[in-house]
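Batch manifest, entry 17 of 40.
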Amino acid sequence: MTTIVANLKEIAADSRTTWGDEFCVTGDKIEIVGRSVVATAGETSDIFRFLRWWKDQTQERPTELDFTGIMLNEQGLWFFADSCDPMPVKDPFIAVGTGGMAAKAAMLCGKSPKRAVEIAIMCDKNS
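Output type: C-alpha cells
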C-alpha cells in the first residue's frame, strides 16, 4: 500500500503503487491543494475522486471512499479516513499505511518524516 508520515513542518510519502502481486514506482503521492499539502493512500480511483472534489467543492461530495489521507496546513495536521471530513491530529506527528508502524517507530527515535519513510521502505514490501 503506502507509507505517509507528517509532522507540523513536513510531509513525506513513498512512491510505490501496488495492485495484486504487481507494483511499480509512480509519481508523488503528495499534492498541493490551495494552501494545504495533502498525501493519500488507498484505492486510486477514490483518491482521484476525493482530490477533484477537494480542489473544486462545487461538485457533489463523493461517498463510500476507500482511502486514507493526511493534510498539513497553517492550522496543523489533519487526518482523512474514508471520508471528506478532516479530523484534527493533536499528536506531534502521524504515520499511516502499511509502513506506518515502522515509520512511527523511526519518528519516535527522532527521525524526520523523509527519513522515517526511507526506513519504512526497508521494512515494508508494499512501500
